[in-house]
Specification:
5 domains, alpha+beta, 31% helix, five-stranded antiparallel beta sheet, four-stranded mixed beta sheet
Length: 468
Amino acid sequence: MEIYCKQCGQKLKQGQGFCTHCGAAVENSEPVGPETPSPSRRLKSFSGKGISKKSKIILSISVIVLAAAFFAYKIAESNHKPSKLVDHFNKTVEQGNAKELANLFNSGQTEMKVDEEGAKQFIQYLKKNPDEYTSMIKKLRNDARLLENGVEVVKPEDEPFVSIEKSDKKWNLIDQYKIVPHPFFIKVTVNRNHSLLYIDNKKMGYIEKDKERTFGPFLPSEHTVKAFYEGKYANVSDKKELDPKTDATDHNLYADLDLTGDHVTIYSDYDDAVVYVNGKSTGKRVGDIDEFGPVETDGSTKISAKLKLPAGTFKSNEVAIHEPDQEVDLHFDNLPLAEDADDMDSFTDSTNTANELEDVLMSHYAYISSHEYEKAFDLFSARQKQKRNYDDWVNGIKDNYQNDVDSFSVVYSDSNRATVSFHLTSYDSKETGTLKQEWEGTWGMVKEGDQWKLDSPAIKKINSEVIE
């Protein structure tokens, strides 16, 4: 065992009495080496002063918070499982809770705003079609299982009414999911200008002839589309019930509404006679009419004709309309005979001129009503065309959809010039309703080639009002 000098640390030999290096006496010849602390000293050194009470509290709170956060995370993760969302959707529908269903749909998408009424219609549709509902829930549950197992759900070509999809993460940690309704759009066409449209009893505004309009988006459910046409002699309506299960193509529902109405055929022994309905002139001659309508067929519509002769104006028999496609035969009895050929020629020329003038005026306003603007513009004289810009003229009348010429008379005529007086009621479509206006005055007319043209107007407005 080695020993060392306690003064200088010099290594000593066994039994040496003093240090040969520093001269110090060696009292005990015990070995000297690195000091090894006793067990009690080691324990005291480890313990030191010990952990403070405050540190112990902080440590305990940290452990509790971490544990609570972990359990909260697991609970939130469980509550946001796709299968739980499908269960909630299923329960909402079965309970008929339209308000909660609307909230559920709106929280999952922004493409359309679902209101409570729309959600109610959707619930009613599913309950009316239990096979569709069962199939939908079955697919949602299957897709939910796939999502929970980390499998991506592939959208089918035939997109379902609703689907379950991944949403944004909650707290940037937890996967969230949403129930997404796939909207439908309704495409509507009509065969009458200025037809008023309703979808599910909601007024959608006016729609024009052969111009398809698209409305939506709508939830997948049955939808009722109605159109109304207010004709001069009859009101016509048509309705279509649309089912997304049977009537949809690529999530579009189509409604082609027929507003033709009931028509009649008119005959007379005088083609130049002007047709009247319920005592008012139509502005059309018998010879110009193939079919006439739409008309009411309940007996309230009565048709007659008037024929202008030098000896006066004569009225035909009157026929009440009781059925569609009715044939109306108008005849004139006991007409005066011309005393000689000259009188007959004068009578014929006068009648033809008056009819030609009336036909030009009536046709002009009828073309405006049907939006055949080029035809209407072509009935102006060359001088009148030069004074008007076609596009500006069209912009000023594009809201018009109906013109009723209530009265007409020839004030003056010769072989090249004429003046006619008339009274007109016009109807224009405005955002606040229909603008009804009454006009009266004269048109000076000139003959260009073999056709009369509208040349110089002197017309004033005598009344104006907005109606529903």
